[in-house]
UniProtKB/TrEMBL annotation:
Name listed for the protein in its UniProt record: 4-deoxy-L-threo-5-hexosulose-uronate ketol-isomerase
Gene3D superfamilies registered for this protein in UniProt: Jelly Rolls (2.60.120.10), pectin degrading enzyme 5-keto 4- deoxyuronate isomerase, domain 1 (2.60.120.520)
Domain of life, per lineage: Bacteria
Cofactor(s) of this protein: Zn(2+)
GO biological process: D-galacturonate catabolic process; D-glucuronate catabolic process; pectin catabolic process
Keywords: Isomerase, Metal-binding, Zinc
Cofactor binding annotation: Binds 1 zinc ion per subunit.
Catalysis: reaction(s): 5-dehydro-4-deoxy-D-glucuronate = 3-deoxy-D-glycero-2,5-hexodiulosonate
Entries under SUPFAM superfamilies matching the protein: RmlC-like cupins (SSF51182)
InterPro entries: KduI (IPR007045), KduI/IolB_isomerase (IPR021120), KduI_N (IPR027449), RmlC-like_jellyroll (IPR014710), RmlC_Cupin_sf (IPR011051)
Task of the protein: Catalyzes the isomerization of 5-dehydro-4-deoxy-D-glucuronate to 3-deoxy-D-glycero-2,5-hexodiulosonate.
Pfam families named among the record's database cross-references: KduI
Organism of this sequence: Chitinophaga ginsengisegetis
Length: 280
């Protein structure tokens, strides 16, 4: 097993305005999240957010520190959230085991020294989608199922954005330092997410798209409301959204996505909405 990481520098609206398709994808898109028995982290300088995936196949995968952190262990000064998007799995945290089924989440607080990921069946391995942010305080480790989430239904089939938002690792459900994670499921016949679009200057965001049917894609929209850009994305890919950028998408089919956020703001509803007719 090995752990690798790459770092992405923050880009200003002025820079992004001049990027071509390849440059946009290089700066913001994470094309491969899961690799058997390997954790590949992507670090962005927006709020020092880390995104990765753990897929144990041949055996357990251990959460290791990386040079970037200059820490004795990964969670020395960080918190970690995850949602399982694969088969049944087990996460062992300093000797305590948590079983995670499909679409169940786990929060691990600052200071936990040993985290081990396992799959119950190598033929249908677990896929732990991981998000991590700096942390100043240690909060308890806690598993959150969809039944325990705060659930909100928005949109309508008439506007192609009927969706269910599952707030899993958010401050209305459990305490965290700054990490917030949840999952939005689009209903059949709906393709638009986060529309009307918005920005939020006090936090950045990462979107992970999955349950995208074979042969289908999602077009992710980003950039300033008056200067938008787009990135075509495939199943199980993630994209970085700066605080100044909208983050919205439309698929060629319905799909599900996980949103993760970090910054000084824990208020989910703190958004600067953009009128659909004023997007450019």
């Amino acid at each position: 097993m090995s752990t690798t990481f790459e770092s992405r520098y923050a880009s200003s609206p002025a820079e992004v305005k001049h990027m071509d398709t390849a440059q946009l994808r290089q700066a913001f898109l994470m094309e491969k999240i899961f690799d058997a028995d390997h954790i590949a982290w992507t670090h962005t300088h927006y709020d020092r957010y880390l995104t990765g995936g753990a897929m144990p196949v041949k055996g357990p995968v251990v959460l290791e520190t990386i040079d970037l952190l200059k820490a004795a262990y990964f969670l020395e000064r960080r918190e970690l959230g995850m949602i399982n998007v694969g088969g049944d799995g087990i996460v062992e945290v300093d000797g305590e085991k948590f079983e995670l089924a499909y679409k169940e989440a786990l929060y691990i607080g600052k200071g936990k020294q040993q985290v081990i990921f396992s799959s119950k069946n190598a033929q249908t391995p677990a896929k732990f989608y991981l998000n991590s942010t700096p942390a100043h305080h240690s909060f308890p480790t806690r598993k959150v199922s969809k039944k325990e989430a705060e659930v909100v239904t928005l949109g309508a089939l008439e506007t192609s954005n009927h969706r269910t938002i599952n707030k899993l690792l958010v401050n209305s459900v459990l305490e965290t330092c700054q990490l917030q994670m949840g999952m939005t499921e689009l209903q059949p016949g709906s393709v638009w997410n986060t529309m009307p679009a918005h920005t939020h200057d006090r936090r950045m965001e990462v979107y992970f798209y999955f349950e995208v049917p074979e042969g289908q894609s999602v077009c992710h929209f980003m950039g300033q409301p008056q200067e938008s850009r787009h990135i075509w994305m495939q199943n199980e890919q993630a994209v970085i959204s700066p605080p100044w950028s909208i983050h919205s998408g439309a698929g060629t089919s319905n799909y599900t996505f996980i949103w993760g956020m970090a910054g000084e703001n824990l208020d989910y509803s703190d958004m600067d909405h953009c009128k659909i007719t004023e997007l450019r």
